[in-house]
Amino acid sequence: MGRDMVDAYKEYFCYSFESVPLVLGTGVAFTDVTVKIDSDSDFEIMKRSHIAISDLIRVKYQDDSYGRQFQNGSMDLRAVSGTTLQATGVVDIGESPTNNFMPYIIPRPYLIRAGTTYTASYSDVSGVANSIRETFHGAKVRQGRAPWDQEWKAKPPYDYTTAVSNTGTVIAAGGTASLQISVGIDAHFLVQKIVGTRTSGAPALVTIRTGGNDRQWMDKAVHFDNIVGNAQFPNVLPAPRLVERGSTISITIQNLSSVNAGTYEIVFSGLKLF
Length: 274
Prior knowledge:
Blueprint: E1 8-18, E2 31-36, E3 42-52, E4 57-63, E5 68-69, E6 75-76, H1 77-80, E7 104-112, E8 117-124, E9 132-143, E10 157-161, E11 169-171, E12 176-182, E13 188-198, E14 204-210, E15 215-216, E16 222-223, E17 235-243, E18 248-255, E19 262-273
Antiparallel strand pairs: 1-9, 2-8, 3-7, 3-9, 4-5, 4-6, 4-8, 10-19, 11-19, 12-18, 13-17, 13-19, 14-15, 14-16, 14-18
């Protein structure tokens, strides 16, 4: 389902569902979590990823603007939302098992109208204390021609990293760090992938915005593993983000561990546009 997208372009964005702790149960009692879509543009869902204490969760999805449900009954979350591969699994995932990015790609992108709401309903079936953070990756659909849709003299690949001092950012247990990446004045930068690393015992929340136009990349802080991939399993953005020359990418990282310090690095991979 979608509107005509003539004279429109797509800009990467993500919305997240943060659930209160789920009621311990057997898949009967559901907790509804509703996200408000910004009024500035429609949003096209393309991928789903999640982090949970236990993946034993049932889920249902609904577009509230139409009352449209997307399933004939609750579904096992593991079947319809991707998550990180575990180090104890049968697949060798290399040196960075904590933030490999393995989303579920929906069969066809779905458009949610600006200013409306979308609800995800979760039900625990693990019987233990449980909670979930789920992120919908996609694009804001904006009117006009894409700022990067023109002839460029050159488009070499390039990476910008938060580890400008050759080391990752160390954040104490429960601490927060604010980082800035300065994009050179020689060229615009088109972000196409987000990758990086973090300490295994120190999960974190991440927010990203572009300094030049103060545009957020998400509606709320996103779990590190729900947005940052690694070399083997990168977060390939379903739509690019343009960072204008001479502007900044501002990143906030909050260490969620109450006992462990963490070391973090985020790398934005893409193209320089000359």
